[in-house]
Design brief:
alpha/beta; Aspartate Aminotransferase, domain 1; Aspartate Aminotransferase, domain 2; seven-stranded mixed beta sheet; globular; binds pyridoxal-5'-phosphate
């Protein structure tokens, strides 16, 4: 491609596209080739590429003040905090700023340990929470972990969806349970009904801090503002990142006040935290989600998308399963997805993967039904080609 690889650590699976420009749910390369973007920057392009509200807010803020350490006060930050408070789950009234998902998780692990006074954590089989040492310690995949042992001590993994196994793993050392309300990286795994409520009940009864990682599933992605709302469950700590600032890096750890109050001055911090540029972009993102009704759009357009995928499943034997909620969808194939993804690119559709055989779709919430219909047409073509190559009929 364009020569970047010569300078970069070889750490990402890369696709042969040089993205030059984006608007809404579309991307273009330098030659003007257009793509429907169901990769959505791994979920970061939540309110669409170059969302007008975000672009205007960033432009205006950049001309005023870009950096402002947390040791000073700032109007852009206050506005963001007020907007965030207006959409936050009930009771999660205190917030810590960072700059990425993994950092939001690191903060959550420290806050929960400090408050509970216990080092042990229960995480889920299949969990993905990031790759810094703390986040990696609660991430399940052996491939990511094995070269970096020892990780944090006292972490136990239990099956996702089984609250009695979770309760059975609790001992005197456990102070925290962490989970994704829908697992993203591991293949769009929706928990069985009742699971989140049962975990909430166990954590209340056993006095354990419950952390929801809503980094991928939160902020309207599933058709509700918070993925936990799909099962009427609120955690004690919630982590956000990805699309919260329209593409500008930001991580957030929200918590109940008594948990945040356990932390002493200076016990956690970040130099870029709460910078005015990210806060302005974040306020514009919340406006887009609420005023432009993007959460509602994620529910209705996501439903149409899933129905279309289920029709493709009826037609294509290569599809084993279709699952997900809102604009967080997974299509499990019977074979590796690599060629399907590359063929998608050749036909103007960007898709994401989960593991070897799952197509993950994280389209911007601004995507309309006509674009979904076109994406489904391209998937139909690409899957037909793949079945021909593999002699599946
Ligand atoms: C659920 C979840 N948690 C945490 C992370 C880590 O976020 P980041 O890559 O910004 O560190 C991700 C990233 O994909 C994620 O999907």
């Amino acid at each position: 491609m364009n020569g970047e690889d010569q300078y970069l650590a070889n750490l990402y699976q890369r696709f042969p596209v040089e993205a030059e420009k984006g608007k809404g749910a579309r991307l273009w390369d330098a030659s003007g080739r257009e793509f429907i973007d169901c990769m959505g920057g791994y979920g970061v392009a939540l309110v669409g590429h170059c969302n007008d509200r975000v672009v205007q807010a960033v432009r205006a803020q950049a001309e005023k003040l870009i950096t402002c350490h947390m040791s000073l006060y700032n109007r852009s930050r206050l506005e963001f905090l007020q907007k965030m408070a207006s959409i936050s789950p009930k009771g999660l009234t205190k917030l810590f700023f960072s700059n990425s998902g993994a950092e939001a998780i690191e903060a959550a692990l420290k806050f929960a340990r400090k408050y509970s006074g216990k080092p042990g954590v229960i995480a889920m089989n299949g969990a993905y929470h990031g790759k810094t040492f703390g986040a990696l310690s609660v991430t399940y995949n052996e491939k990511y972990r094995k070269s970096f042992m020892p990780l944090l001590e006292g972490v136990k993994f239990v099956p996702y969806g089984d609250s009695s196994k979770l309760e059975g793993a609790i001992d005197d050392t456990i102070g925290t349970v962490i989970l994704e309300p829908i697992q993203g990286e591991t293949g769009i795994i929706v928990p069985p009904d009742g699971f989140l409520q049962q975990v909430r009940e166990v954590c209340d009864r056993r006095n354990i801090v419950l952390v929801f990682d809503e980094i991928q599933a939160g902020l309207g992605r599933t058709g509700r503002m918070w993925a936990g709302q799909n099962w009427n469950t609120t955690p004690d700590i919630m982590c956000l990142a990805k699309g919260i600032a329209g593409g500008v890096p930001m991580g957030l750890t929200l918590a109940k006040p008594e948990i945040m109050d356990a932390m002493k001055l200076g016990e956690h911090s970040s130099t870029f935290a709460g910078n005015p540029l990210a806060c302005a972009a974040g306020s514009a993102t919340i406006d887009a989600l609420t005023k432009d009704k993007l959460v509602e759009n994620a529910a209705s357009t996501g439903r149409a998308f899933k129905e279309g995928l289920l029709r493709l499943k009826d037609k294509h034997k290569i599809i084993r399963d279709v699952r997900g909620l809102g604009m967080m969808l997974g299509v499990e194939l019977r074979f590796e997805v690599k060629d399907v993804l590359l063929d998608g690119i050749n036909n103007g559709l960007l898709m994401l993967y989960s593991g070897r055989n799952i197509i993950r779709l994280l389209p911007p919430l601004v995507m309309d039904e006509a674009t979904v219909a076109r994406a489904l047409e391209i998937m139909d073509t690409v899957l037909t080609g793949e079945e021909r190559r593999r002699n599946v009929s």
